[in-house]
Every structure is written in C-alpha cells, then in structure tokens.
User: Fold this.
Amino acid sequence: MPETYDAIVIGAGVVGASAAFHLAKLGRLKVCIVDRGPVCGGGTAKSCAIVRSHYSVPSNTALTLRSLEMFGAFAEWLEDADAESGFVASGYLIVASEGDFADKLRRNLTMQADVGAETFLVSREEALERHPLLALDDAAVIGYEPKSGYADPYLTTTSFIRAARAKGAVVETERAVEGLIVEGGRVRGVRSAQGDIHAGLVISAIGPWTRPLTESIGLEIPLEVSRHIVLTFGAAAPYAPELPVIKDLTTANKMYFRPASGGVVLVGTGDHGDPVADPEAMDENVAEDFVLLQGGQLAHRMPSFAGVAPTANWVGPYDITPDWNPVLGPAPGVEGLTLAFGFSGHGFKLAPAVGLTLAQQILGQDMDVDITPYGLERFETGKLLVGAYGVGSIS
Ligand SMILES: Cc1cc2nc3c(=O)[nH]c(=O)nc-3n(C[C@H](O)[C@H](O)[C@H](O)COP(=O)(O)OP(=O)(O)OC[C@H]3O[C@@H](n4cnc5c(N)ncnc54)[C@H](O)[C@@H]3O)c2cc1C
Assistant:
C-alpha cells in the first residue's frame, strides 16, 4: 500500500516547514514533509536571518509585518510552549549617501509607513545613540526600524517542523523526491527511491533545486542560482547582541552586518553574487581579496574594526528570479501542485507569512496578505515585482 496523505510538502527548509505547519493548523490536513537531507540542511542553514520591513515592493513589506507579528508571539502562534525563533528585536538602520539611493530610501520609508511599518528617518546623532560604534560622516539619509532584528534560522525551522508534527505531520528526511506523479493534469503524489507517496496536494519548496522537478513536468521556470559569502569578525570587545542590524547602501555590494553568537559581527552582501551552474558544486573557498574588501568596508563603517581578523566564513545559495522576488502559487497546467521558490536571498523573513498565505490560498481561505501577484504567470504578463534598488536581495 503506498503511503497516502492530504498534502506533501517537498523541502524541509524554513519555507516548507512553515507551509506544512500552516496546512496542518488551518486545514487540519494530514501532511507529509519530505526532504532529501536533514531538516534545515539547504539554504536556510546558511541564512543570516535578518528580519526587516525595508522593501520597495509594498507586498514584501506587508508579508514581513505579518512575519514580525508571528516572531513576536512565536510560541503562541505555533501552539507550542517550547517553540523558539531566537528573534532579537535589535532594530535596523539603513544608510545611504546623497544621490539616487538616498531619494529611494526616503520614498520607501513613506511607502512602508503607509503599509503599516513603524519606520522613520533618524539623524546621525540619533543613529549613534542606537549604535555607538558607527562612523556616519558620509551618511546623508538614515532609516530606522525599531521592531526589526534577526532570528535563528535553525531554531525557527525546527520549531515549525516540531509544531507541524504535533498536529500530525510526518517528516521523511533522507528521502529525495525523484519526480511527481501526475495523472490527467492533476498531481497525485511524488516518487522516491523508497517508494511513492500519494496526495492530492503537493507543495514544492526546494529553492535552488526546483528546476529538475519543474522540467520533469515540462514547465520552464526563470531561476538562476548564485553564491554568497558570509564572514564573521571578532573585535577586542564582544559585539553586543542588541546592536541594530546595519544595511549600508553606500557600498557597491550593499553590505549588511549584524550581531552573531559568540560576540562576533556577521557580515554579508545584498548583491547578485557569483553565478553558480550547479548548486551541488558550489566553491566553498573564500578568496583573500574578498575578505580584505569586506574587512575594509566594515572598518569604514565601524573604525574600531580596523585590522581585525575574520573568525569564520561560509557560502550559501540564492535562488534568484528575474525580478528578485519569489514565485508563489499554483503551477500552471498541474492542478494541486503549488510552487514556492526564487526567494532571491530574502526569504527567511518572508517564510512565516508565506507559509501562512500559501496555506490560505491552497485551502481557499482569505489571505492575510494577497500573494496572487507572486504567481509564475507574471513573467508572461510582464507584471513584475521590481524593487527600487536594482539587482540584489533588498527588493
Ligand atoms: C548567505 C545567505 C544569507 C541570507 N540572509 C538572509 C537574511 O538575512 N534574511 C532573509 O530574509 N533571507 C536571507 N537569506 C535567504 C533565505 O535564507 C532563503 O530565502 C530561505 O532560507 C529559503 O528557504 P527555502 O525553504 O525556500 O529553501 P532551503 O532552505 O534551501 O530548503 C530547500 C530544501 O529542499 C530540499 N530538497 C532539494 N531538492 C529536493 C528533492 N528533490 N527532494 C526532497 N528535498 C529536496 C533541500 O535538501 C532543502 O532542505 C539568505 C540566504 C543566504 C544563502
């Protein structure tokens, strides 16, 4: 007898975990989560997990605000007293020098306030009160979000998985999905070396690895993968966990940094990254030139970091769509199949709300935020969700 469920979620990253939990919570569906590796073994494990409402696409801000509500009451929302996201509301400062980005930053703060975000301009002095290590002489515009911050991607994902299990979900790890079972234009389940699994609803949340699955049903998707490097730097004094996240639009690679455990600062980039033909074969080596570049940019923004050595580095994949926003919603031509991919380097913060709204869409319920504009067809109709800052994960 094949295993049979109401719904199968492929991928146990933060998006799949959130979708599975919400399907079980809102629809009381019997869900099977299948991953070819462990829980949280993909891009989510490499995430910097910054949660900010600063976007230029209003629906991204709306989704983040919904996620922030969940992070603020995580255990209650997950109905699990032990659920933990590691969220720290350290605040978020975004800095631009005079010019193009300064105007866009000002405009986007107004847009976000219209959508309901608590965000406003601060002076250099006010920014320094919140983050005394900064040097801000070249900062013409500084935006601030007091309620944003950063979370722990592993804790968040495993908490969603555990809460889903508490609602009856079954988790199949080390089980790669090798294909979809489609009959008469409807999805009927998935194939794996360990046997078929049947369900009338399938959600694909496999990020950079989506293309082989969609190709197997003859669906072309616009998706490219790039490699991003994260570095951590230690300083003489531990970097305090309550210091705000910094986004530095004055740097060409749109550098960001935030506190990380062990009193170090974690530094990443919001640019395109290096294109990767095969996400399986990502170069793990980090070039010395890049370390020097990032160290120099960090020391420019925080002079006390001049000359400090990196303490760790890692690389992770961005699954990028042409407009740097995810594809969410039904797969054209295959009833019952839902796609969630292309988070373009900013999907962690969206994931709680995306899991909720995908479940609402699938169940035919009112959506807390309308995700219809994120459908795959936008690349045909030209109704793209293009952000104001150009290429990069800020969107
Ligand atoms: C370096 C870096 C920094 C980032 N920083 C931030 C940030 O600060 N804030 C933010 O909001 N976002 C950030 N992101 C983006 C965010 O982390 C991702 O968008 C998000 O984690 C994607 O989650 P996912 O569940 O879609 O994918 P993944 O976490 O990649 O999960 C996909 C899962 O699918 C599984 N899978 C693949 N193929 C198969 C198959 N055939 N069968 C079964 N399972 C399969 C994989 O094993 C994996 O577990 C960052 C990303 C990176 C790489």
Observations:
- The radius of gyration is 21 Å.
